[in-house]
């Protein structure tokens, strides 16, 4: 008689798949439990009521989901760059890089904005965040225009640089990407396009905002070009010292600035849900850990090579996000639209990749 307790091949495969996913997301789950527990404790200490505690707990959860939805494309782009980095630099990015992402962008960055905008000291900014969260949120909201302009131009250069590549031979939306690839031989065409968009959006700004938008957007463009040049110099120096080394310090710096640009929208948008800096840091920090886990999984499982259009979807999402950040200087666009839009583009790209694999016997 057959033993009914014997697992089938299908159940073995499902168990192995679940174990594999758990291995990648183990630390993210641990941070989620600790972060939500800390959020509940913070809620109890600040409100002293069960309702207030549950509210803070819920806000932390929503912020984590918001960060994950906004950062699907960030994880894919990180994996795209990481696969060409040396193992040593991969480990550095996935350890030191995540510390910079969580503590630098989710805590230090909002404090730094208030320090500069309000012309106060760092400790005064911390006190302001704890004692007067409404005033803190107001200062952050006023700083939204230059942040959106800077982040929008930087991300636009990231997206355009992927498509304006004369060596790129895999095209998803062929009627667009074929023309772009042929135009890639024109030097500086991406910079020209971004500058034209900067000029166009700056002219649409209200009086007094035109110079602020233009200056911040140009600095975003300059930052991208500086990181590219510096990265090339640093990595070429490493290659001269260590033959075969690829994607070293320059790639690390590029990924850190890229992560910062992705974080701008989430950090500013988070103040619509909570004015408490520490609640925001907990929620977005949890989300950042899932982005790290997704990045590791994409690199180790070779997902980008298995699904040929996944990168395309991510870079289209980046271009869409950059345009949304520019548009946010004129109108309010809910973060849920930004997150769902990017996730939708990646989902369509994944579906197209699956269809292509089936049609070509992969």
TrEMBL record:
The keyword Transmembrane applies. Keywords: Membrane, Transmembrane, Transmembrane helix. It comes from the Bacteria. Pfam families: DUF475 (PF04332). InterPro entries: DUF475. The chain crosses the membrane at residues 24-44, 50-72, 93-123, 143-164, 184-201, 213-234, 246-264, 270-291, 312-330, 336-354. This is DUF475 domain-containing protein.
